[in-house]
């Protein structure tokens, strides 16, 4: 199984930021209100994610790192209605096969915490540990036993920049959760949870920093079982980065052709052609209306009713943008 996990790891875990993604998504799935990410040497030396979520009962600890074990899906039927971020049950198995791995957790309602360690795919027995309610996962020496992968890791700065970007996209998705990020012991980001709309906008501005548009429109519209909310920036002469365009479907960042086309059309129709605008948009719809099971790492989705989604997005944005011209 260790070899199989290593192969799977190659698919899901490309670099330190992919590990951070899996761990933070697990924390979100566990209902965390606060997530702390500590990185050393761009993630090559250490990736630690700590949360205050529901934790893992001691008897389920070995399952957490077993391959294809997930607590999130009871049947294939559930696959249709996945609301959680992860559901394949392979992330921890994969990453623990290519690192020195430790997980410490205290489940809610328990008064003891336990720690398991996996070294090169070998699981050690759970031992008592100190930990408040929630979970900490520590990944040391990522890819230490996969030299080919280790060689592909870029400069510390580059890998950390990927982690920072990734955390931005997750922080934008969940503004009710506090995120902290440190690198080599220095705090780099602290994004406090937002409790109302004003705080939410402030947090978006904080997370995006200079990428945040000087002028933005609030979007909030629902029709035909679809709900679009968020902010769209008005294009400026100075070119905004294409990567300050965030579109979430049921809380997941998505890069989708249909979405991109609808947004581009709305801008092009109302405003000027060829200018880039930043936006942060959230589309909510019945999970049965969208297939997120296309690829674990790519940001792809497939809408059941593509036309409907496209037209809804186009009309909603078109109407909002048109008002600015009136
Ligand atoms: P998946 O998220 O697809 O279920 P993972 O390998 O990422 O698979 O995690 C395996 C299991 O470990 C999860 O289903 C969950 O039960 C448990 N788990 C992992 N991380 C956490 C966490 N931070 N808090 C609580 N449970 C966790
Ligand atoms: Mg997961």
From TrEMBL:
Keywords: DNA damage, DNA repair, Endonuclease, Hydrolase, Nuclease
An MF annotation (GO) of this entry: endonuclease activity
Family of the protein in this entry: Belongs to the DNA mismatch repair MutL/HexB family.
Protein name, UniProt field: DNA mismatch repair protein MutL
Spans through the membrane: none
Domain DNA mismatch repair protein S5 positions: 204-322
Domain of life: Bacteria
General function of this protein: This protein is involved in the repair of mismatches in DNA. It is required for dam-dependent methyl-directed DNA mismatch repair. May act as a 'molecular matchmaker', a protein that promotes the formation of a stable complex between two or more DNA-binding proteins in an ATP-dependent manner without itself being part of a final effector complex.
């Amino acid at each position: 199984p260790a070899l199989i996990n290593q192969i799977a790891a190659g698919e899901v875990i490309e670099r330190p930021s992919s590990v951070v993604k899996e761990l933070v998504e697990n924390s979100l799935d566990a209902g965390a209100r606060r997530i702390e990410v500590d990185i050393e040497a761009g993630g090559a030396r250490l990736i630690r994610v700590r949360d205050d979520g529901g934790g893992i009962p001691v008897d389920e600890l070995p399952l957490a790192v077993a391959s294809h074990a997930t607590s999130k899906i009871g049947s294939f039927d559930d696959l249709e209605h996945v609301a959680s971020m992860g559901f394949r049950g392979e992330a921890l198995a994969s990453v623990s096969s290519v690192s020195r791995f430790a997980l410490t957790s205290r489940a809610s309602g328990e008064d003891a915490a336990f720690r398991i360690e996996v070294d090169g795919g070998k699981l050690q027995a759970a031992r008592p540990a100190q930990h408040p309610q929630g979970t900490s996962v520590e990944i040391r020496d990522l890819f230490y036993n996969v030299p080919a992968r280790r060689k592909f890791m870029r400069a510390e700065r580059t890998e950390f920049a990927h982690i920072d970007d990734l955390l931005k996209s997750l922080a934008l998705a969940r503004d009710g959760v506090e995120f902290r990020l440190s690198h080599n012991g220095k705090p780099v980001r602290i994004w406090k949870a937002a409790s109302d709309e004003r705080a939410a906008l402030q947090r978006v501005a904080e997370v995006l920093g200079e990428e945040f548009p000087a002028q933005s429109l609030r979007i909030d519209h629902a029709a035909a079982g679809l709900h679009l909310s968020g902010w769209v920036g008005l294009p400026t002469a100075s070119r905004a980065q294409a990567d300050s365009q965030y579109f979430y479907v049921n809380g997941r960042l998505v890069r989708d052709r249909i979405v991109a086309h609808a947004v581009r059309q709305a801008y092009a129709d109302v405003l000027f052609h060829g200018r880039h605008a930043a936006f942060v948009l959230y589309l909510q719809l019945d999970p049965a209306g969208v297939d997120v099971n296309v690829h674990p790492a790519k940001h792809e989705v497939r809408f059941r009713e593509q036309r409907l989604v496209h037209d809804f997005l186009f009309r909603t944005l078109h109407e909002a943008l048109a008002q600015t011209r009136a």
